[in-house]
Amino acid sequence: MKRIFSFLICLLSIFCLVSCSTGSTQPTEKDPTVEEGKSILKIEKTNTVGKVDTYTIFYTDGTFTTFEVTNGTDGLNGTEGKAATIEISEDGYWVINSEKTEFKAIGESSASGKGIALIEKKSTTGKIDTYLIVFTDGTSEEFTVTNGTDGTNGTDGNDGLSAYEIYLKYHKNYTGTEEEWINALADGSLAQSYKTTYNIIFTLATIPPVLAALDAIGNGYETYALIERGKTYNGIEQLPNFHNVGFSTNNNSSSGFTKDQFDLMASKMEELNVFGNEKFNIYVQDGTGLSGLGLAMNANLSDSQYEIIMCEDGRGTYIALEQAFVQGKALSSTVDELYDNYVSYVNYAKEVVEGVKSTNKNDFTDSKFGYYIPFAYTLAALDNFTYWIQDEAQIKNILEKSNDNDIYSKLLSCFHIDGYQDSVEYTLNIKYDNIMNSVSNFDETQKTNYLTLMYGEYFEDTYTNLTRTTLDDHTTTVPESKLVFIGTRIKSFPAIASNDAYGIGGVTTAEEVPNTYADLNSKYKIPLLFPTEADYNIFIENINDVNNYETTPTAEQLSAVRVQCFNYYINYIFVLKYTYALYGTSYDIIMKGHPSEVLGAYSNWTNAYVTSSYNYNKLMNEVIMDFHSTDSMGKFIGMVPYGTAAENLAYLGADIAICGLNSSTYTGYDTNVDVTFVLELKNTDITTNNNLNSRYQAGNLTFHEGNNEYITHYDNTGNIYKNLISIYTDLNETELVEKYQLLFDAWLKASFNLESIEGYDIDHQGFLITK
After folding, report:
1. Among 130, 158, 314, 438, which is 20 to 30 Å from 54 by CA?
2. In angstroms, what CA-CA distances link 54 with 45, 50, 150?
């Protein structure tokens, strides 16, 4: 009988492992309320009456069922019994007494939730018992048990593995005790682990954290973040399901990650990987895809537990594709170096990946964890890696540039480009999606959470400025359409005002910065700088205010501060007043500050203003703040004290266009947000600007929706001169018109090597044209 019962128990175990079971004390039919994932905890004999043994099946949800086994009468002594052998084949099936069954040893999830509703003995013929198994979907099966004559008791068979031991066999990293495992089985936490997913954000730069946040807020999973430029998640403490693993929200340095930060995140993931069933979405910057794999391995994750999402970081993503896989590669009817080169890279990537996966003690200082964007394209061809790219049109444009009439590279098929369906060895796991599309799919709560994460304590100020209808006086109206000026560090504003070559020139000594407007050099008393005494007093009163100095500077330091602060300040206000003069009647202009220089939070600036060993961050902060609140033209420029991607701002206000200084913000983003103009002191055209060229080549900076109307002006040095001529003509500033006309003529002649400029001009994107 021991052998017969062992076989019965084995069959019960098989059915429980391959399906989800129901449970009631007296199951007679399919239970429609049964939950998927329910299984048998244990089976034990609970009673014996005569030759009838009663067995109880205990389920993981606390319910149970019973069944009976009737033992036959004693027969003649038989031969010595042999213990049943129960094993698992290499391909995962139960093997009973050396015979392979059709049943899997390791359960697989069942979409239908099919389980055992009832087991009962139907009949007995001689020594053959027939049992009926009824499943929860209404189907049934029968099996027989032949009772042999009783013989001499055989020796006890070897004990099989317990359920806990079997679990450990397939979850080698589980560290809980058997008691802890049984408790987890009973309270449902083990079953829940199969349904648990975490977002892990370990990204450099600014754009990758933005993309990762969009995905994390969209999927709603618990999120753990450790990002390089912490200000990008300024409001992380305000979101309950976002957790800061160890970064400062006041930090904006681009110094990369340290070994300690890598190890900290790996430890957090290992802590979350309680049962070895949890899933992890690991977001990294595209140039650091292997770092995500290193985290997964060091956290002891199996291949079924993680997906690494490599997020693009603007223009570098597209430049890397062109330089690594397109430029200089031959393509003909017999040669496809683009594709062949790519395949060789993927094969190499396989070897590197296997090296990382061979240990759970990867050292982050190893060179293979360095920054290299082209590697993202090869990793994306392998399992567990996905490449998130925003602009499919740019990818298509770059790859199709290599086409030679009807001859094209099979690499286009690797990238899933429409119209190309060649059979290829590798295809990329690629996600084409941009910021605006992600946000447009959000409900209002998700959108608020996203913007709160991005702006934190500055969210209200940002929203107020982008939705304002009047100035602070609540009387003066502003245009409904918004023009967001993409700024950068104050010290990085182009030297249009402080450089002699551009017509004004800055100060070189402290004496040139007088304490009264009357003594100020007349060249600064112009409409785009200090047209009134009140405008100048904003600067001079702040620079003379002892409260604007953290410590008392020496006389030498104070002189150096006056010179440098004046030059930075006039460049800053000149550019914004220039923008207002060109667009202020059409747009309400909003100034987006750089994350590292949140105005009002100067103590956290990562780019200090220092001269003669003296830091004057506080002074610079106060001067700029006053400009935005009281200057005769500055007050028309709404100030957003903090921001990341320009498109974030577009989701807060209507009719948004963006403009400003050279920035990677313009690359890889939603093309529905117009780039109105970009200002850069260069002598070349729009195609030489790395942040604009790819979008220009794709066509979305040339014409707007098929109309013969340019949407993007590229204000190079020549166009700055031309625009100043126009501005000062409207203001009847004859001397300034003549001054900038001479500067433009000289620039045009020198830039294009013209003996005579007669009949020549440049268009508003910097290209030489004939009149």
Report:
1. 158
2. 6, 11, 20
Structure confidence by residue, pLDDT tens digits, 721-732: 999 999 999 999
Contacts of 731 (CB under 8 A, 6+ apart): 527
Q: Are 424 and 413 in contact (CB under 8 A)?
A: yes
Prediction pTM value: 0.70
- Angle at CA of residue 461, ends 458 and 463, nearest 5°: 105
Q: What is the largest CA-CA distance in the chain?
A: 128
Amino acid 174: pLDDT: 87
Q: Say which amino acid occupies 208.
A: P
- Please give the pLDDT value at position 514: 96
Q: Measured at the alpha carbon of residue 42, what is the angle toward residues 38 and 46, in degrees to the nearest 5?
A: 125
**pLDDT of 298:** 97
User: DSSP state, 81?
Assistant: P
Q: In the structure encoding, which two tokens stand for residue 315, read together?
A: 């223009």
Tell me the two tokens of residue 277: 């069933």
Please name which of 221, 208, 210 lies closest in space to residue 455, comparing C-alpha atoms: 210
Residue 215: which of 49, 29, 439 has the closest Cα? 439
Round to whole Å and give the CA distance between 546 and 685: 46
Residues near 463 by Cβ (< 8 Å), separated by ≥ 6? 451, 652
Residue 77, pLDDT score: 52
Of the candidates 253, 200, 245, which has an alpha carbon nearest to the alpha carbon of residue 606?
253
Q: Which residues contact 132 (CB under 8 A, 6 or more apart)?
A: 118, 119, 120, 121, 122, 140, 141, 142
Residue 34 contacts residue 115 (beta carbons within 8 Å): yes
By C-alpha distance, which of 573, 625, 574 is closest to 599? 625
Is residue 673 within 8 A of residue 657, CB to CB? The reply is: yes
Among the listed residues 380, 409, 391, the one whose alpha carbon sits nearest the alpha carbon of residue 317: 391
Which of 117-121, 138-142, 517-521, 628-632: highest mean pLDDT? 517-521
Amino acid symbol at 401: K
Strands lying side by side in the sheet with 713-715: 637-640, 588-592, 482-486, 656-661, 674-679, 713-715
CA 252, CA 206: separation in Å to the nearest integer? 9
- β-sheet with 64-70: strand ranges across: 40-49, 52-59, 64-70
**CA distances in angstroms from 13 to 7, 97, 206, 559, 674, listed in the order given:** 10, 16, 52, 86, 64
Which helix (H) or strand (E) segment is 617 a member of?
A: helix 617-630
Give me the amino acid identity at 311: C
Confidence at residue 708, expressed as pLDDT on a 0 to 100 scale: 65
The amino acid at residue 181 is W
Q: In angstroms, rounded to a whole number, what is the distance separating the alpha carbons of residues 567 and 609?
A: 12
Q: What is the dihedral of CA 683, 687, 689, 692, to 10 degrees?
A: 140
483 in helix, strand or coil?
strand
3-state secondary structure of 444: helix
Angle at 59 between CA 38 and CA 5, to 5 degrees: 120
Residues 6+ apart with CB under 8 A from 487: 493, 591, 592, 593, 594, 660, 661
Query: Three-class SS string for 241-285?
Result: CEEECCCCCCCCCCCCCCHHHHHHHHHHHHHHCCCCCCEEEEEEE
| pLDDT tops 50 at residue 561 | yes
Residue from 686, 684, 675, 677 nearest 723 by CA: 677
Q: CA Rg, the chain, in Å?
A: 36
What is the Cα–Cα distance from 350 to 123, expressed in whole angstroms? 60
